[in-house]
């Protein structure tokens, strides 16, 4: 609703904006200070002193990150809501595999040094990433024999001879799928997801994710303003 009202007002409409709560964001608010969170969930007592000042906390009811090159960021720029927001680039992403935590490589140097995959695997993976970057669903010359609407993602991985570890890493850390169902579906959606990840990463270099400095509740608040 907040986004809709923001877009309407940018296009010259008058909007009456009403809120049933004393804070912005409805279901996806960020609760601050910590004392309010305790009230909201009827937790007994007060936050322990070890947690510092209550005002230093913003707790998202629905935690999310923004893709730096994603649709929402484009909307924020279009409506100029960026004037009301401060963003923070996430320091890095990590995956948990076989009992260990690994950093998801964000530069070529990091990729070469990463122990997530072996040397030959890295070369093949690099070829795959170059293919994804050049892929354009409106230009069949970039398909290299893949039919985006018919070829499954499993077959695309086979084409580049990628092993199970790389497949897991690509599907879950880059394309951000929670299950492996995508493997047997047409590859177009997955390729576009990996593309979005790479383009988002290219914008700020550390990580593809942005986050409003004072919690996600800032977003509806920005649009409401």
TrEMBL record:
One of its GO terms (molecular function) is Rab GDP-dissociation inhibitor activity. GO terms for cellular component: Golgi apparatus; membrane. It is found in: Cytoplasm; Golgi apparatus, trans-Golgi network; Membrane. SUPFAM superfamilies: FAD/NAD(P)-binding domain. It comes from the Eukaryota. It is a peripheral membrane protein. Belongs to the Rab GDI family. GDP-dissociation inhibitor preventing the GDP to GTP exchange of most Rab proteins. By keeping these small GTPases in their inactive GDP-bound form regulates intracellular membrane trafficking. Negatively regulates protein transport to the cilium and ciliogenesis through the inhibition of RAB8A. Regulates the GDP/GTP exchange reaction of most RAB proteins by inhibiting the dissociation of GDP from them, and the subsequent binding of GTP. This is Rab GDP dissociation inhibitor.
């Amino acid at each position: 609703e907040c986004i809709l009202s923001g877009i309407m007002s940018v296009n010259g409409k008058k909007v009456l904006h009403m809120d049933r709560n004393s804070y912005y964001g409805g279901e996806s608010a960020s609760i601050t200070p910590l004392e309010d969170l305790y009230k909201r969930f009827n937790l007994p007592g007060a936050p322990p002193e070890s947690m510092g000042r209550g005002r230093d906390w913003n707790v998202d009811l629905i935690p999310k990150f923004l893709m730096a090159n994603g649709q929402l960021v484009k909307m924020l720029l279009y409506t100029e809501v960026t004037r009301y927001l401060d963003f923070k680039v996430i320091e890095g992403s990590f995956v948990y595999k076989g009992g260990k935590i690994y950093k998801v490589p964000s530069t070529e140097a990091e990729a070469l040094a990463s122990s997530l995959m072996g040397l030959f695997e890295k070369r093949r993976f690099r070829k795959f990433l170059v293919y994804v970057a050049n892929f354009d669903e409106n230009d069949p010359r970039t398909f290299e024999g893949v039919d985006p609407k018919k070829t499954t993602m499993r077959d695309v991985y086979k084409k580049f001879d990628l092993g199970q570890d790389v497949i897991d890493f690509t599907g879950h850390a880059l394309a951000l799928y929670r299950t492996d169902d995508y493997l047997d579906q047409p590859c177009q959606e997955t390729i576009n997801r990996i593309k979005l990840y790479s383009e988002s990463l290219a914008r700020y270099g550390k990580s593809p994710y942005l986050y409003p400095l004072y919690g996600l509740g800032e977003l509806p608040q920005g649009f409401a303003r």
